[in-house]
Design goal:
With 308 residues, the chain is α/β, with parallel strands linked by helices. The chain contains 13 helices and 8 strands. Strand 6, helix 8 and strand 7 form a beta-alpha-beta unit. The relative contact order is 0.14. It binds zinc ion (ZN).
Length: 308
């Protein structure tokens, strides 16, 4: 049976984009719930300027308090200073981010696009020198909120450079949620052909309601890993109008019902989404947690009885 890996990004991409500042203890409880639901690779923090992103100011505190041996913890970094902070913690994996256009790269991280990929490669080198793994995400790979269309040739060239850095994986991010399945299928296929055998991950936002369709297009095109956030938490404060990530439990429902294993427990995810909705104090975008799974627990019991 085919399987797809899911990286849970709720504790970072999700919470970073909420106006509310969560206590480290809420983050720890969220991560514990995700681990309980089977998450084994989790983006837990970003090591960025706390004046710009106050939601992530407690990155070191969160890392220090996380239990060992439960999951691979990822820390997002945008520059060498962030990498040094991350490497001073027990984080297992650094997630470096470069951006496909100059205007967005400047707004997001004060770098040109070309500088952003050079710096991402330096971050990978620093992680490897410290005995950690690192991967590179190409932001705005399908479209830019400031410059509009993004050339796939540019993204492929960046992916080639990223792959040569020693990164364990290259991710294509639809940061502002403009991609449609045809875009995702085409770019994943091109990047895969360029960097094989290195795996391709996708990071999709559901801003225009194409998120789940894009997940399926990515899976069909050979992406190995999908970023998702519990309940569809998230957005991007530096990308106007960007909505949350694709909801983890909706992705798991889609994939498992299609015969693709994820290693995640849908009932536990639905329970965690319900609990976290209470913590947030407002409904989350995910739909499966509201509609419930199919077949329901009751229907599954009846099915089993019928089979006896
Ligand atoms: Zn994102």
């Amino acid at each position: 049976m085919r399987s797809i890996e899911i990286v849970e990004v709720g504790p970072r991409d999700g919470l970073q984009n909420e106006p509310k500042i969560f206590k480290a203890s809420d983050k720890m409880a969220l991560i514990a719930n995700l681990v309980n639901a089977g998450a084994r690779r989790i983006e837990v923090a970003s090591f960025v300027n706390p004046a710009r992103v106050p939601q992530m100011a407690d990155a070191e505190e969160v890392l220090a308090a996380l239990p060992d041996g439960e999951a691979v913890y990822i820390g997002l970094v945008l520059n060498r200073r962030g990498a040094d902070r991350a490497l001073a913690t027990k984080v297992h994996e650094l997630g470096a981010v470069c951006v496909a256009t100059d205007t967005f790269a400047m707004r997001n991280q004060g770098q040109t696009s070309a500088d952003s990929i050079d710096i991402a490669c330096d971050i990978v080198a620093a992680a490897r020198a410290a005995g950690r793994r690192a991967q590179i995400t190409i932001g705005a790979a399908f479209g830019c909120p400031f410059e509009g269309e993004v050339s796939p040739d540019r993204v492929v060239a960046m992916a080639r450079q990223a792959a040569a850095s020693g990164a364990v994986e290259v991710a294509l991010a639809d940061t502002i949620g403009v991609a449609v399945p045809a875009d995702v299928a085409a770019l994943v296929a091109r990047v895969r052909a360029e960097i094989a055998p290195l795996p391709v991950r996708v990071h999709l936002h559901n801003t225009r309601n194409t998120g789940l369709a894009n997940v399926w297009a990515a899976v069909e095109a050979g992406a190995t890993t999908i970023d998702a956030s519990l309940g569809g938490l998230g957005g991007c404060p530096f990308a106007p109008g960007a909505a949350g990530n694709v909801p983890t439990e909706d992705v798991v429902y889609l994939l498992e019902r299609s015969g693709v294993k994820t290693g995640l427990d849908l009932d536990a995810l639905i329970g965690a989404a319900g609990w976290f909705t209470g913590v947030m104090g407002h409904p989350l975008p995910g739909m499966v947690s509201k509609a419930g799974r199919f077949p329901s627990a009751q229907q599954r019991i009846l099915e089993k009885v019928g089979q006896v």
